[in-house]
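Query form — protein Agmatinase, mitochondrial

QUESTION: What is the three-dimensional structure of this chain?
INPUT:
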Amino acid sequence: MPRPGGIPTFMRLPHQTSAEGLDVGIIGIPMDIGTSNRPGTRFGPRQIRTESSLLRLCNSSTGDQPFSRLQIADLGDIPFTMYDIRQAVKDIKDFISKVVAKDCKPVTLGGDHTITYPILQAVKEKYGPVGLVHVDAHADVNDSMMGCKIAHGTPFRRSFEEGLLDPKRVVQIGLRGTCYTPDDYKYSTDQGFRIILAEECWYKSLTPLMIDIRKQMGNGPVYVSLDIDALDPCYAPGTGIIIK
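ANSWER: The structure tokens for Agmatinase, mitochondrial are given below.
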């Protein structure tokens, strides 16, 4: 089959409707009803899958071939309502709960960052409070946004309040840009989160930092969250909130 052909699954993986027998499931969450600025991330999962058709199965640097040792499939997109954010969060949580109940690790494609909150709710049911490696331009620990408690800028505050996170194993990397107040990161540090500003990552190898974070995470369960706005917008301008 030519690369542009066939069902556009992630990396042209098999499509399944059940997580049974899988080590990893790729899941799309095409939601952007929690964003406060530009919409459009609802199209993210589809575009990621399209672009991923050119990826090959072996890492040229490490020689690793994950598909030879793990059972991985694309589980499609989560069905959820686009008109009620609280119901959408419940829909996402219920879907992910069924996946992790099968001992399948979810790899989700968003979607605005609101989706992290229900994912962590589901993961906590299976694994208890988890460590977090969060790569983002923003801390996403607002108490509310325009009066709403659930939005793309609040997921890690809600998650901490509900005991979904192990605060001693939370690292937020790449925070940058302007703030509302000098205390914008105070909530994170008050809870014991580790903050690493983008400026601390400039002009040097990140290998020592990654080794240190790996030690901090220990052997407990860890959730990794990557917001595309962590990248310089000259390379990735297609994000809801551009931070230069």
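ADDITIONAL NOTE: Residues 85-100 form the longest helix (16 residues).
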